[in-house]
From TrEMBL:
Keywords: Coiled coil, DNA-binding, Transcription, Transcription regulation. Residues 96-136 form a coiled coil. It comes from the Bacteria. InterPro entries: GntR_C, TF_FadR/GntR_C, Tscrpt_reg_HTH_GntR, WH-like_DNA-bd_sf, WH_DNA-bd_sf. The keyword Transcription regulation applies. CDD domains: WHTH_GntR. SUPFAM superfamilies: GntR ligand-binding domain-like (SSF48008), Winged helix' DNA-binding domain (SSF46785). This is FadR/GntR family transcriptional regulator. It comes from Lentzea roselyniae. Gene3D superfamilies: GntR ligand-binding domain-like (1.20.120.530), Winged helix-like DNA-binding domain superfamily/Winged helix DNA-binding domain (1.10.10.10). PANTHER family: TRANSCRIPTIONAL REGULATOR, GNTR FAMILY (PTHR43537), UXU OPERON TRANSCRIPTIONAL REGULATOR (PTHR43537:SF5). Residues 11-79 form the HTH gntR-type domain. Pfam families: FCD, GntR.
Amino acid sequence: MSEALRPMVKSRLYEQVLERLRAYVAEAGLSAGDKLPAERELAASLGVSRASVKQAIVVLEVQGLVEARHGGGTYLVRDTLDVEPVEQLVERRKRLPEVLEAREALETKLAELAAERRTDAELEDIRQALDFMRDEIAGGDFGVEGDRRFHAAVTAAAHSSLLADFMKTIAGQITESRTESLRQPGRPSRSLAQHTAIYEAIAAGDPKKAAAAMRKHVRTVAKVRLLDWVPED
């Protein structure tokens, strides 16, 4: 059957709640650190069940836009609720495990090779990327660009054109996994510490330690709220 004639999808109620919450935050002028109304209050105001409100809050949590504190309410993490479409979120959830598997295989070997082959100039590039990420995080950002620079510098230091080509092939998916990981609460500082351990192993010329540090890091990247989320029909 033609793709254009596929069955139409009815908008889920909690997706409508998401849009109302986005508009409410904008109209009320709320910003990071502000508290959203209680689920019961939101449900009554919107004329929906608390279950629908709860589903919407979970989607916001998955995207790192709010923090739901047990018994303490829900707080904004960012200044806006620019919610990613749920269908895009579902698709990324499907492909993320394979991307993370590929990252572990490729980047562990790249770190090992970098420890064996890096030049002093390439080691300096890795250190500068680390400093850039540290400054980003200190300024309140997630450290996404510094993270990208760090892994790019490690790849360059490995002197493996074929592995570098493989990394370029999945660059878009890697960017998704990087952003997904770094928006987890507390993750930027943890990632920075793990990058530091990778850098130190490469600087010491210890391939096994560099590979182990990279493997630990990529497995931390894999621990994201999105993979625990079960989309509601």
